[in-house]
UniProtKB/TrEMBL annotation:
Pfam families: MFS_1
Membrane spanning stretches: 37-57, 69-93, 100-117, 123-144, 165-186, 192-213, 239-256, 276-296, 308-328, 334-356, 368-389, 401-419
Membrane topology qualifier: Multi-pass membrane protein
Cellular component aspect of the GO annotation: plasma membrane
UniProt KW keywords: Cell membrane, Membrane, Transmembrane, Transmembrane helix, Transport
Protein name: Major Facilitator Superfamily protein
Record organism: Streptomyces melanosporofaciens
Length: 443
């Protein structure tokens, strides 16, 4: 087992040398062990997480008999404790480094899942989901910021666009999102507690792997314990503009859970086809993300990639808006919804790697964790506000196409928010900072 893990991380079998491959196949081969570990970690994170969380609402409502508003409140608390605190997790990464924050987050996630599996009262459920969410607020900014830093180094070494590394990270996460519910569904044949303990087991493996393989001091990272990082960040208009544009993508993606179910219910008379549309989205990312990223990396800079991605997302909403007045039902009625899912997913493939790759150019030296966490927290706040507005929009009794046209306008207008690319020398710098490599953070 030890030999297999080391071979997976180093990319070569015992006693053999790696063989040359065409340029489009070199991303994984040329990665060093650390980014490989982080990419595999993202896969494990999502398997463990999605083995439990998709089934939480049913468990709370049916098994525990909670009222609908209580279930919604608990799920909202979990999202808040995760997305809202990403910026805190990012700050801790800059201050204390990747390894301790990831290990602490894994311990918190294990404790949260075990607690949730044994929780029989409302207060215990709330405490456990808050702990589960906070765990992600610790380890996710740590992993994401270090992957971004490693991707920039990979690009500067001449291997290709940094978005290729970040695309691998996205694919691994999406694969975990696909596999996790399958594992959880099998374990629910036993009970919900079994799914929780399995999720905890996955994170126990991750904890052991990182305790063994994660270096205590990562070359190229410098600690930053100076104050004033948040103040400088909120004055960084270019970064905040990126957050707003990225937030509109997340708001559009959130319509998979808000506007799309209503449209599927109208067209099919039930939400059974919804699971097939979700599977379509996941499989598209797993199989098409890398080719799309390679294509974009050879032809587009980060701003153009996000621009095309946001316009594809807008087109997805426009497809439904154009078909909605016809009020088709059955299979024909589901085709516009499928078109929306495909265009949204294609847009996602362009937007997500580009946004993550852009953050290192906009972050102060030694603050990459803070900026990575803030990207999620600010965008999450936009989704929270925008989802409330979207829910009201769908309930106003407007003409059928109107809500979808409004939703199409949001990502289209967000293109105007994207900052213009500037030279490396113009990036934000900490007070008194000398010329250094483009990205650095804590040890």
């Amino acid at each position: 087992m030890t030999d297999l893990i080391r071979r997976a991380l180093t990319g070569r079998a015992a006693g053999t040398a790696p063989t040359p491959k065409p340029p489009r196949e070199r991303t994984w081969k040329h990665l060093s062990p650390l980014p490989r570990l982080l990419i595999l970690t993202q896969l494990a994170f999502n398997i463990g997480f999605f083995a439990v969380l998709p089934f939480l609402a049913e468990h709370l409502g049916t098994t525990m008999g909670m009222a609908g508003w209580t279930v919604g409140f608990v799920l909202g608390l979990r999202t808040f404790s995760q997305q809202g605190l990403f910026v805190v997790g990012g700050w801790l990464v800059d201050r204390y480094g990747v390894r301790p924050v990831v290990l602490t987050g894994c311990v918190a996630r294990i404790a949260g899942f075990v607690w949730l599996g044994h929780a029989e009262r409302t207060w215990a459920v709330i405490g456990s989901v808050l702990l589960i969410g906070f765990a992600a607020a610790l380890f996710s900014p740590a992993v994401e910021s270090e992957v971004a830093r490693q991707a920039v180094s990979w690009e500067e070494e001449g291997h290709g666009s940094r978005t290729r590394v970040l695309a691998l990270f996205t694919v691994s996460g999406q694969a975990g999102t696909f596999v996790g519910p399958l594992l959880g569904g099998l374990l629910l044949g036993v009970d919900f507690r079994a799914a929780c303990l399995a999720g905890a087991g996955v994170f126990l493996v991750v904890l052991a792997g990182h305790a063994w393989l994660m270096p205590r001091h990562i070359p190229g990272r410098v600690g930053n314990r100076e104050r004033g990082g948040v103040r400088a960040m909120v004055r960084n208009r270019r970064f905040l503009a990126l957050c707003c544009a990225y937030g509109t993508y997340l708001l559009a993606y959130n319509q998979l859970y808000l506007a799309l179910p209503a449209e599927v219910e109208r067209a099919a008379g039930s939400q059974v086809p919804l699971s097939w549309l979700f599977a379509l989205s996941s499989l598209l990312v797993v199989f098409a993300q890398l080719p799309v990223t390679h294509w974009a990396g050879d032809r587009l800079d980060l701003r153009r990639s996000m621009t095309i991605g946001l316009l594809l997302i807008a087109a997805g909403f426009a497809v439904v808006a154009a078909a909605r007045p016809a009020a088709w039902t059955g299979t024909a009625g589901l085709l516009p919804a499928a078109g929306y899912v495909v265009l949204l997913t294609l847009g996602q493939m362009l937007v997500v790697p580009a946004a993550r790759a852009w953050v290192p150019d906009l972050a102060e030296s030694g603050r990459l964790g803070l900026y990575t966490g803030a990207l999620s927290s600010v965008s999450g706040l936009i989704v929270l506000i925008g989802s409330s507005a979207t829910g009201s929009l769908l309930d106003l009794g407007l003409p059928p196409a109107a809500p979808w046209l409004v939703l199409a306008a949001v990502p289209a207008l967000a293109v105007t928010l994207l900052p213009r690319r500037r030279h490396q020398a113009d990036r934000p710098r900490a007070p008194g900072e000398a010329d250094q490599p483009r990205v650095s953070s804590s040890s």
